[in-house]
Amino acid sequence: MPRLAAVPWQGPAPVPLDIYMEFGHRVIAAVASVFLLSLAACRYRKYEGPARAVPVLAILLLLVEIGMGGAVVLLETPVRLTTVHFMTGCWCSSSPST
Q: I want to staple 10 with a disulfide (CB 3.0 to 4.6 A). Which of 2, 5, 16, 79 is the partner?
């Protein structure tokens, strides 16, 4: 909870760092999601046959990641779910691209 200044001319109290980190994570994740969706759409149009499953799976994995992130927030960050959410994001970002 943000603290208010004791006197009005001192201005508002500084916002805790964790608020900036959480908001920054959401903004970066939203931008990355837009890029992933646009890339998956382009690749889906270009690929033929079974290769079309790759962009579809990427979108499904993104949806799972979004669901886990929402569960982490709503369930007040259970340790196991946070670890799975983090490792899924790491695995996705380190996967080789074609």
A: 5
